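Dear support,

I submitted the protein below through the web form. The confirmation email said the job was done, but the results page showed an empty box. After a refresh the structure appeared. I'm attaching both so you can tell me whether what I see now is the final result or a partial one.
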Amino acid sequence: MPNMTVIPMNKTVRAVEEATILQAMLAAGIDAPSKCGGEAKCGGCHVFVVEGRKSLSKVQRLENERLDTLVGVGSKSRLACQVIVGTENFTIELPSVA
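What the results page shows now:
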């Protein structure tokens, strides 16, 4: 199982391969403000993948369409509910909430 490091809390937890990042966050007790139940409808689980992107699933059309509607996204932006965990360690950063 790969390790998932979450910034800014600098918490490293084990993530199950083939699960989503959102599932890994919830299993580790990390709050993820997702209101749609992981269906890529709300964008609340937006994260930045800082390291380890190559082992994660590629962006699909539904995720890309939702990201296009959000403010504050960048080239490392992903929806945690849509990213399938691979075999390598990765680091995500939670967007700051002002």
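Response: this is the final, complete result; the empty box was a page-load delay. The chain has a mean pLDDT of 94.
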